[in-house]
Amino acid sequence: MRPTVHYLLQTEAHVYALATSASVLLAFYPFLIVMLSVCRDFLHWTAAEQSVYVALSDFFAGEQATFLINNLSPWLVPKLDVLAILLLLFTANGVFEPLEVALNRAWGVTQNRSYLKNQLVSLGFIFTCGGLAILSLMFTGWNHAWIAQAKFSGPLGDWLQRLFFKLAAIPLSVLALFLIYWKLPNRKVEAARVAPVAVVVGLILESLKYVNLLIAPWLAGKLAREYMVFQHSVTILLWSFVATLVVLAGAHWTARHGRQDPLS
Length: 264
Prior knowledge:
Elements: H1 2-8, H2 11-42, H3 46-59, H4 62-70, H5 82-106, H6 115-149, H7 154-183, H8 191-227, H9 231-256
Helix pairs in contact: 1-9, 2-3, 2-5, 2-9, 3-4, 3-6, 5-6, 5-9, 6-7, 7-8, 8-9
């Protein structure tokens, strides 16, 4: 692990992580708007819509989760339209540009895709990841309806909702990571080589949620003093930065054990 740790301490890795996390911040709110609109206006499924809020409370802790949920209340979410989808596509495309460059460097690839090819590949990833997110929400929505019919309420009902969300979200997150590691670099990568790393990275990212729960009160107070009205945006940026470094570490570790393969 020493070479990978050394890689994470380099300026290059931080530049890639910062560029990716900035794109995540730009795409964050439009993505949630589209997910809520799809559940409400296309699927007409209240349980799936409520699953978005379950996901927010799972990813974020304390006052920040309350702030995000309150500002994404159903009456504040506009109806699904083409402009919102185009905005999501435009902002989300930026997530995969620095990621491709970072993964190419990890694998020793010096030639990146052209801008047009990168946009087409990114578009495919956006639809794939968005589809996986909707599938996760649908699975959680079905179980949310089952919990309501079984009349589980209070802490037990909340715990069951989170459990079913994790049972759906973790495998789908691992699948998304696997596809990124496998298809985003501008070279052929063996699926069997990246599959175990995708699982490990997915579990590490899941464990970061619990780290967030532990330090959320301290972090929220510190950011509130230093950034005031921007504290929630900075929180998203910081955790996206950390998560991206974890993803890059997985890519670097895998690539170090596969550079003997010929580039293509």
